[in-house]
């Protein structure tokens, strides 16, 4: 899988391959620079590479080369990890970094991005689940439908802003990887700060309320609107996990949704 690109782009292997559900990655050196060779195995990753090119290194990793399923990316070499920060007393700062990076990605660009995925299509699995299961799913679907029918501050979205997708690029700062190439209201991109299941404290009400205050200020979002996006996104995540029969993560996502819905009702 990697061999044709190693030859074509004059790359030197610089680590072990990394396999994910959607791509194959290999750390490499390109012109003496640390880089990451990524070969997509699904359409989301292929679309994401086009968005990375469009950002042109502003808020996201540089794309050094792109052909077919393969993309050669600037590699993060910094030691800091946002997930570690969030779990070790720097949760507020980690959230602020996520918000600042998202703001860079949302900034207008001189040329349009062709064929982004509208949020209405991204949310298409929530309503059928809500009709079938009801309960919190139905509440989240109602909120999502209201948001999607009245979008504000529409822009190109990363689509998966969380602690593992914003990395430390040292002198270049914190930059994004692995976008989903969505289009819709910018508030959507801040919801996953509250829903990253790798962060054990996301279901703690005190953490939820504190980060609600931090993110709403840093992202310049009305708290009510942010709560609505958290509820909508968490409901969608729970629907996806339900489809994968991932029961623990379904409950985690629904707990976050209930926190948001409870705050909205207060």
Automatic annotation (TrEMBL):
Q: In the UniProt record, does the keyword rRNA processing occur?
A: no
One of the GO biological process terms: secondary metabolic process
Pfam families named in the record = APH_6_hur (PF04655)
Which interval of the chain is the signal sequence? none
Q: Which UniProt keywords apply?
A: Kinase, Transferase
Q: Please provide, alphabetically and separated by semicolons, the GO molecular function terms listed in this UniProt record.
A: kinase activity; phosphotransferase activity, alcohol group as acceptor
Q: SUPFAM superfamilies attached here? A: Protein kinase-like (PK-like)
**Among its keywords, does the record have Transferase?**
yes
Identify this protein by name. Answer: 3'-kinase
Which species is listed as the source? Rhizobium sophoriradicis
